[in-house]
Amino acid sequence: VCSSDLVRARCDIIGGSNRPEICGTGSKMSTDRVLAWVGVAIGILGLIPIFRDSSLQLKLTYAVCLILLLAFFAFLYRNGRGPQYTILSMKETLEILEINGSHAKMRREEQIRVNYGQLSEIWCRNIVADGSIGNHLIDGEPPDLTESAGGLVSICKRFTTPLFRGQEANILWTYELSDSFPARTEVFDHDVKQATRYLEMIVILHKDRPCRGATLHALIAGDHDRQLRSPSIEMNGTVVKATIKRPEKGRTIRLTWEW
Q1: Burial (CB count within 10 angstroms: exposed 0-12, middle 13-18, buried 19+), residue 215
Q2: Count of Cβ atoms closer than 10 Å to residue 258 Cβ
Q3: Using CA atoms, how far apart are residues 109 and 145, in angstroms rounded to an integer?
Q4: What predicted TM-score, i.e. pTM, was given to this entire model?
Q5: Of residues 97, 76, 64, the one with CA closest to residue 29
Q6: Which range has the worst mean pLDDT, 7-16, 81-90, 107-116, 238-247?
Q7: Could you tell me which of 155, 153, 94 has the C-alpha nearest to residue 127?
Q8: Pair 116, 80: CB distance under 8 Å
């Protein structure tokens, strides 16, 4: 919820193959992994008679093979947990087109890499601002799915061909905001929901209303956590830029400026 003089141009990115509302969490073990571990356990029990009756050399051979097998399964298990994909870079550009803040455009350039499984769709969830939001586009095309609930908008892109582990993709999310930046002090938020290597936040102001000052903070559940390195103010005060390497998950990065 935002006060009247603040805006949260925010979007939570969620990806998945079947159920986008839970994909990417990696919190539960899939059925095939459960069966694989059950098979390993049964195999270990089946080796007991062999260990009992075999020679020392054969026992050592079986032991080494078993250790290697367990290490291999542990590797697969570890790589199948955590976020389904990593955001390699996220560049968000908020351009305010009118001097009174009545019209603005948001541009989000995102590069991702799949960590495991297949990724057939990706969502930009919970887009919200003080004013109205419209003209949502993904890579220049209308979203494949759009959901609205309680002032929050979520849009979805479905990949023509699913992405698999190690593959990368670039996605461009754009939308327009009306009557969202009327005050002298405004903010631009980014919620870190996915593992992110690099985040860049840029605000382009109207040429006749330059920036007077800007700060960057990290928040937890809406409460102040700490102040980050101050954004740079460039181009005679018309561009405010902040860069963060590996922002912490669960934090909200808030760029505040006065103009």
Answers
A1: middle
A2: 12
A3: 19
A4: 0.72
A5: 76
A6: 7-16
A7: 153
A8: yes
Write the pLDDT tens digit of every residue in 211-229.
999 999 999 988 888 999 9
Q: Which range among 7-11, 32-36, 124-128, 224-228 shows the weakest confidence by mean pLDDT?
A: 7-11
Whose tokens are 């009545």? That residue is 102
- Sort 240 into a burial class: Cβ within 10 Å, 0-12 / 13-18 / 19+: buried
Cα dihedral sign for 107, 145, 121, 125? Answer: positive
What kind and span of H or E run contains 214? strand 213-220
pLDDT at 44: 65
SS3 1: coil
Q: How far is CA 139 from CA 146, 170, 189, 192, 196, in A?
A: 15, 9, 22, 22, 21
Token digits for 257?
Answer: 């400026």
What backbone phi and psi angles, to 5 degrees, belong to 63? -65, -45
User: How is residue 197 written in tokens?
Assistant: 């290597």
Please, which residues bridge with residue 255 across strands? 188, 216
Sign of torsion over alpha carbons 135, 140, 146, 152: negative
Mean pLDDT value across residues 129-157: 92
Task: Give, as one character, the DSSP assignment of residue 129.
Answer: -
